[in-house]
Amino acid sequence: MVEQNLSRRRFLSRQIRIALGAIGLSAIGFSCDKEKNPVEPEPIGATYTIDLSDPTYTDLTVVGGALKLDVPNLDFQVLIIRTGVETVSALSTVCTHLGCPVELPQDGQIWCQCHNSYFSLTGERLSGPATEPLPQIDARIDNNQILLDY
Hints:
17% of the residues lie in helices and 28% in strands. By secondary structure, the protein is an alpha+beta fold. It is built from 1 helix and 9 strands, in the order αβββββββββ.
């Protein structure tokens, strides 16, 4: 058996690293365990208008097109999806699991890459650790404009 000399400094250094590692692991576990409350927009009586004749919004002129937009007075981006010729969906881009941003829709689903949650084009939870749907914002199409009421 080989005897090791362990100085007081080296011993304390190891103990501190072990303690910090344990604290870090428990913090990670705690943060992954908590379900993020959905970011529900507080109604403020505002209407945001998207003019579909503006080339910036070309993606929203075709069924299946989608964009993420910054909307005044909201603390999150809004995902706008053209779901039909006369229909549109507007959702929070904040995943209801841990608050990561969701991706633009692909193959009829919205994906959150952080923990692999999937949502429908209307925000309903399809699978993954998220248990709540994406919050919706009232949206409609009128005279070649998309109107968001919030």
